[in-house]
Design a protein that fits this description.
8% of the residues lie in helices and 43% in strands. It is built from 2 helices and 15 strands. The protein starts with a helix and ends in an 8-residue tail after the last strand. The N terminus is likely disordered.
Length: 233
């Protein structure tokens, strides 16, 4: 008997079940009904067929639907890790946010947006398990940049099982952008903790100003030079 055939038989004797490969899915947030937004879950293996079917609608119902509190203001959706962060009314400090866990299909209430981000999130980027959001201000106000994460609450951080919740935190130093600076592009470095942001002066959009970086490990800003990322967005 050949070794190959013998190994197949030995494998059958172990009685092990074949390892299940976890399916991948694409989640789409759309304003596809007159009262708000929907999140659709699409099987990545059938994505090409699904895109063809979109001409007549999605094959399956939405996994979540949200009625917009103020329709014309829209909502903010940001994916990080296995979660989708949803700001239902980005301009109201009393309105809670939601965090949807795509692994468990669980929906939890998150923290309200901090005051500096209430006019809307212009940029959001994920570093590790932390979501960083930025709001660009005009006039004499300072640009706002802050992290949200799943962190211990209260004074029991030293406990082996502390109470946990989604929460926003403030950073020790504000963004170094000037009042008229406008972020035109950003990217995460392969090291996973350095965020690059290129800026233009909004009064002279044809003239690039330069690029800054933010180190999420040490919470430090750095001027990188008078060059910009070779793309927008």
């Amino acid at each position: 008997m050949s070794k190959r055939h013998q190994s197949q038989l030995n494998g059958d004797r172990t009685g092990k079940r074949p390892r299940l490969v976890q399916k991948k899915h694409l989640y789409l947030a759309l304003d596809d009904w007159d009262k708000g937004f929907s999140i659709h879950k699409i099987d990545a293996d059938t994505l090409q067929d699904t895109c063809t079917d979109l001409q007549v609608g999605f094959p399956d119902p939405a996994v979540l639907r949200f009625a917009a509190p103020v329709h014309y203001l829209g909502m903010n959706f940001t994916a990080f890790g296995n979660n989708i962060f949803i700001a239902t009314n980005p301009r109201c400090g009393q309105t809670p946010t939601f965090v949807y866990d795509t692994r468990t299909a669980g929906l939890v209430i998150g923290p309200s947006l901090p005051a500096p981000l209430l006019d809307g999130i212009d940029l959001s980027v994920v570093a590790g398990d932390v979501l960083y959001a930025l709001h660009s201000c005009h006039g004499s106000e300072q640009h706002s940049f802050g992290p949200m994460s799943w962190a211990p609450t209260g004074n029991d951080e030293e406990s082996p099982r502390p109470a946990m919740a989604w929460s926003w935190k403030s950073l020790p130093s504000p963004p170094p952008f000037a009042m008229d600076d406008e972020i035109t592009s950003y990217a995460m470095h392969p090291d996973g903790h350095t965020i690059f942001m290129s800026v233009h002066d909004r009064n002279y959009r044809h003239l690039p100003k330069g690029t800054f970086s933010f180190d999420t490990k040490h919470c430090e800003w750095k001027w990188c030079g008078e060059w910009v990322l070779p793309f927008k967005g």
